[in-house]
């Protein structure tokens, strides 16, 4: 434990040391500018990332659907793929989703059909992955897009 020597420190009535700083106005202005652009940059990052994922997932799905022997593909699954608008979740985080809308025309939802296509099923349908390869492919491109957007904001 450090001991304090008697009489050390500043006492009531003592004059405070003076300090002068230079350049803080520039730093403050820069931080305020970044703060003002952050919301737009976040939205743009989410939208562009979702667009990349959508294009790659759709391409993989189109290559996969209808390729199996005895395929009953109607094209509805590909048509149901879409991107949601940006929304806030219950914790206040922003989300955008790439997924399948449901028409309610069938016994299975489009999301469950998409899952059976990706992973196969217990009735002998083999997996025909399209989504995981697309997401893996999209990761690097998405990282580059987000980095580019945030570099613009912080310049």
Tell me the structural class. Answer: mainly alpha
Order of strands across the widest beta sheet? 1-4
Helical fraction: 40-55%
Q: Calculate the mean pLDDT score and round it.
A: 84
Element-by-element helix/strand order: HHEEEEHH
- Structural domain count: 1
Q: Give the DSSP E fraction (strand runs of 2 or more residues).
A: 5-15%
Note poorly predicted spans.
none
**Count of β-strands:** 4
Oligomer: single chain
Instruction: Output the number of helix runs.
Output: 4
Overall radius of gyration: 27 Å
Largest sheet: 2 strands, antiparallel
Notes on the protein architecture:
The protein is mostly helical and 155 residues long. The protein has one domain (38-67, 75-154). Helices cover 52% and strands 6% of the residues. The protein contains 4 helices and 4 strands. It has helices at 24-64, 76-80, 110-119, 131-154, and strands at residues 81-83, 87-88, 94-95, 98-100. It has a two-stranded antiparallel ribbon. A two-stranded antiparallel ribbon has the order 2-3. A hairpin with a 5-residue loop joins strand 2 (87-88) and strand 3. Helix 1 (24-64) runs antiparallel to helix 4 (131-154). The longest helix has 41 residues, at 24-64. The chain is elongated, with a radius of gyration of 27 Å. The model has no long low-confidence stretch (mean pLDDT 84).
């Amino acid at each position: 434990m450090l001991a304090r020597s008697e009489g050390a420190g500043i006492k009531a009535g003592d004059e405070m040391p003076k300090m002068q700083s230079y350049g803080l106005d520039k730093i403050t202005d820069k931080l305020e500018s970044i703060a003002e652009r952050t919301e737009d940059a976040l939205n743009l990052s989410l939208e562009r990332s979702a667009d990349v994922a959508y294009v790659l997932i759709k391409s993989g799905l189109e290559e996969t659907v209808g390729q199996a022997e005895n395929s009953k593909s109607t094209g509805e699954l590909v048509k149901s793929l879409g991107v949601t608008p940006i929304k806030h979740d219950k914790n206040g985080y922003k989300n955008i989703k790439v997924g399948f809308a449901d028409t309610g025309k069938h016994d299975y939802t489009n999301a469950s059909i998409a899952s059976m296509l990706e992973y196969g099923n217990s009735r002998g349908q083999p997996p025909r992955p399209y989504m995981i390869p697309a997401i893996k492919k999209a990761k690097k491109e998405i990282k580059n897009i987000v980095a580019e957007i945030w570099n613009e904001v912080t310049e």
